[in-house]
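User: Okay, second chain of the day. Same drill as before: sequence in, structure tokens out.
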Amino acid sequence: MDIEELQTFVEVADAGGVSPAALRLGVSKSIVSRRLFRLEAELGVQLLARTTRGAALTEAGATFRDYAARVCAEIDVARETILPAGELRGRLRVAVPLSFGLTHFAPILAEMARRHPQLQIHTCYSDRFVDLITEGYDCAIRVGYLQDSNLIARRVGPIYGKFVASPDYIKAHGSPETPEELVAHEALMQGTESWQLMDGDKIITVRPQGRFKADNGIALVAAATAGLGIAYLPDCLTHEYIASGALMQVMTRHPPPPAGAYVIRPPGQHPARKIRVLTELLVEYCEPGPHLAGADR
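Assistant: Same drill. Structure tokens below.
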């Protein structure tokens, strides 16, 4: 029984269809279909029921999927165990934030690919929330304050940020000085998030409101410079605008506490070595701070 056929079946089962599985695997749909055909022929049972919406597991397929996934996982562990130290093979699928992932994390992933020429790295840059398990990612890099979940997180570096607004907005609406004044202002947000502020050694949480929302930090920078409201943004996105005078820091007596950059992975007893290597490389680059913090913290 071919391990590629087992891996392909698991991908199709988890992705819910041939097309998304082919995208995950980086191969054509015809190759995926041929592998499934050979596997079902060898087993003598139908594992997947093809529909217009994708592929659904048969009763036999649902039972076989768990066994196939365990076999694939054990093979991956075995490969890692016998490989020479430092050599990685296979594929690593990573979800990375778009806003500054291209400038801050992309070079690190490129360096990992350079160090490990046998490793395939497939990266998705998006500011949307990626479901690692459903969409078949090995791990994700996330920034900010983490929500509670069953995922496993490792902090790799600090993220420093500020509350900012344009001079025109401050001239028209004033500069808030207290948390109570801040929530009365027009907020530029990614969604319905809360904001955290420091009051001495204490952390205060407020719920801002605003009419302009975007799932991308660069879009929020544009809205802030246009005078639409106050935004909480990482220094690496705003330091050039603050230096030029296009944006100004507000709430200096109540700054936000440092956030973090994290590697997130699905729950499991031990992370794959490729995830450990990526995490260590991110710590190497990010922990000192300037790579992520920007120049003006």
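Residues 43 and 135 are 27 Å apart (CA to CA).

User: Thanks, on to the next one.
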